[in-house]
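Quick log. Single chain, no ligands specified.
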Amino acid sequence: MPDLENETQVPELRFPEFRDRDGFKKTPLNKLLVETKTRNRDGKYGKEHVLSVSGEFGCVNQIELLGRSYAGESVANYHVVETGDIVYTKSPLKSNPFGIIKENKGVPGIVSTLYAVYRTTAKADPTFLNLFFSSDYNLNVYLQPLVNKGAKNDMKVKNSAVLLGNVFVPEVDEQEKISDCLVSLDELINAEVDTLEALRDQKKGLIQNLIPEKGTSTPKCRFPDFQGLEEWGQKSLSELAPFVTDKIPADSLSTDNYISTENMISNFGGIAPSSNLPEVTRVTEFRENDILISNIRPYLRKVWLADRNGGASNDVLVLRPMHEVGSRYLQYILKSDDFISYTMEGAKGVKMPRGDIASIGKYSVSFPSLETGEQQQIADCLSELDQCIGNLGTKILMLREFKKGLVQKMIPAPELTG
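-> predicted structure:
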């Protein structure tokens, strides 16, 4: 008979000073965490201190994350969450159907009674456990045998029962060493994300300065070669780039040349391969150098300058620039905050608002003469910045994948049961 109480696992990667130790010991989570039941009865925390738990951002202030507080009239019964506490939310996500578990790395606050709050014992480092549960696989495999799903997809599990599963952990000093290593990698990733946001802000500023404001016919800044040239022209978007309505058979498409709003990447990130071909028989034709914009929830900021021919779904608008504006220049107009705001103001619908095509067509576009080369120079400048943004975005994705791989190699996964 195997000695289950002393069962261990040796991670694939381990720091040199711990290689002579035994493997990570199988340990019930209730030896590492205890439930805290402190309530906000003294009124120390108000609605402005309510925390939400996000799969992407962890424990964060609800107002900062969602723009407002969703707390009830009284928060006296809310659970108090100290820095370093572990919070379990019983709300399913697509990647985490049994809820999520996150460490509160920020300031203390409160959470609704729908959350469970735990504190580490002397045998556990909270950041190590947060890293363990940051893996979708680890989290889902751990929670699945403990959680029953109700008819309305709600979680049927007592707070104490969440701690009844087993995890493999080393001694606290090794947990802390692993945490320090991976947190330092997080800090590097966050620094790169800050740089990325700064570049995006710089791009916004350039667009605002290189393209005239509404009601004006010259930009704030102009390249030296074009100083003193004539004022820019202004026309409606539909005059410069009519909407394409031509249809082609859907069965003529492959996943490489079918575009829908689902495979257009947010923040103007281009496109990803489509996972599904259209169910309809005909789709809107597009050609190389046409501009495609998402017409559902335009605030997702999806614009793509086509580098191939293909077909687009009904939730994508196809524009074909005429001789007065170049496609590379016009795409930046359609990526501007002003155009996004204008489109949203005219959007119709509640659950899935759609931009009103007639209204979008009336949007006023400022442009210099195509013959002078000024459009080309503006597009070249912004394209270079786009290249930097794209390269940095790729680097961040690679760093995140690298971290995910380290977690898998440094922290053994829970046992798959059932």
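The CA atoms of residues 163 and 356 lie 51 Å apart.
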